[in-house]
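Recall the central idea of this unit: under ordinary conditions, the amino acid sequence of a chain determines the structure it adopts. In this exercise we apply that idea directly, starting from the sequence alone.
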Amino acid sequence: MHEHGLSADERVRTAGLRPTRQRVALVTLLFAQGDRHISAEELHDEALGAGIHVSLATVYNTLHQFTEAGLLRILAVEGARTYFDTNTSDHHHFFVEGENTVFDIAPGPVKVTNLPEPPEGMEIANVDIVIRLRPKR
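Accordingly, the structure predicted from this sequence is:
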């Protein structure tokens, strides 16, 4: 059992998806360790390491399906590299350049003010702040 008391199978069903063996295995990997930020490539490597035979394309498709279903939040931080966040609450991130690591900023002091009015018929879903870090020179 995971947070919210859902099994991997139930979590896939809740997302409105058929709980195929591969999806259930990927959900298990994603949510076994609490909140994390992971790229499709990293999850694919973990799956292969765990003996789950799945293509990178399937991992990508599954991550995007989970994102659309609200199970994951997508984070585009570094050009072509996309990270998927298992914590879907509103929060912000640090990104360490050169290491390609992402971690949460502790809740609290970050405030975004003076946001523009969204176009008619639209609303702001969320605001992602990524603060890029590097070692002091």
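The CA atoms of residues 114 and 127 lie 12 Å apart.
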